[in-house]
Every structure is written in C-alpha cells, then in structure tokens.
Design a protein that fits this description.
five-stranded mixed sheet; about 30% helix; globular
Length: about 80
C-alpha cells in the first residue's frame, strides 16, 4: 500500500500541531488540534504516513494512529530538530 499523504505531527501537552503534504517539500495544509479531536481527525483521514518525534507519549499515539490504518514513523530528536 502506498501512502501519498505525509502528515507531520508536533506533540504537546494540550495542543497538537499538524502539517500535511502530498508532494515533497510543500506543505498543503496545517491544523491545530486539541487532544479530544486528534484521533477523530486521523479516523477521517485516508491512509497516510505520519511522522513524529519520538518522546514519552509518541509511542502511545503511534499505536493509536496505527490502529486507524496509518503508517507511523518515529524520528530521533537529532533527526527532527531543525536547529542541529
């Protein structure tokens, strides 16, 4: 199965920031979701590749998102930090 959509997720305590792209190097859309709407959003999204920084809660959210049919990629901090 090929996923044409890439979703980047920034996890925080209260609000999650998402950016989506269907072409490399171009952000097609951005969303800011609270915890209660986060999984609702992915339930309505066609299968996609979801990328997020590996942290304490990222593994939990990755399992929940994978249950909805998406592919999740967890990145090390050194890979996802734009200041390195």
């Amino acid at each position: 199965m090929q996923n044409d959509t890439l979703v980047a997720v920034d996890i925080a305590k209260e609000v999650f920031e998402l950016g989506g792209s269907e072409r490399p190097g171009r952000v097609a859309w951005r969303r800011r979701l609270d915890r209660c709407r986060f999984l609702e959003f992915f339930a309505q999204l066609p299968p996609a590749t979801v990328v997020m920084e590996a942290c304490g809660s990222a593994h939990y959210w990755a399992r929940r998102i994978e249950e909805l049919g998406h592919v999740v990629v967890l990145l090390r901090r050194s890979t996802s930090d734009p200041t390195w």
